[in-house]
């Protein structure tokens, strides 16, 4: 297997819950670091949203493996940022038996 071409620089972000002072909370995204990755679009669908149809694209994002427990290892619920584009991580798996590469399965979402 040829190594992937890691030519996209992504920011890894983690959601932190912060109290809003009224008994509720809001999500603040904390920057964890930069990772180089290879990205490939996998599928796209159009679905009905509240006001109009929206497009949902799933991505396969490959990067160098990071040990389990390391803060730099992506996890479901975190997200990648590429400028104004956001990719919510749904699953993470080792790509090869040697454990050199990780594959993250993510959905692109619009920046709110």
From TrEMBL:
Pfam families on file: Phage_HCP
UniProt cross-references to Gene3D superfamilies, sorted A to Z: Bacteriophage SPP1 head-tail adaptor protein
UniProt name for this protein: Head-tail adaptor
Species of the source: Paracoccus alcaliphilus
């Amino acid at each position: 297997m040829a190594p992937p071409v890691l030519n996209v620089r992504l920011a890894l972000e983690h959601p932190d819950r912060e109290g809003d002072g009224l008994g509720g909370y809001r999500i603040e995204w904390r920057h964890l670091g930069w990772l180089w990755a290879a990205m490939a679009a996998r599928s796209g669908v159009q679905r009905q949203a509240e006001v109009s149809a929206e497009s949902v694209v799933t991505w396969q994002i490959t990067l160098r493996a990071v040990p389990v427990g390391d803060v730099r290892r992506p996890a479901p619920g975190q997200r990648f940022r590429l400028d104004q584009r956001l990719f919510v991580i749904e699953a993470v798996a080792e790509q090869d038996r040697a454990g050199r590469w990780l594959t993250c399965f993510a959905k692109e979402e619009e920046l709110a």
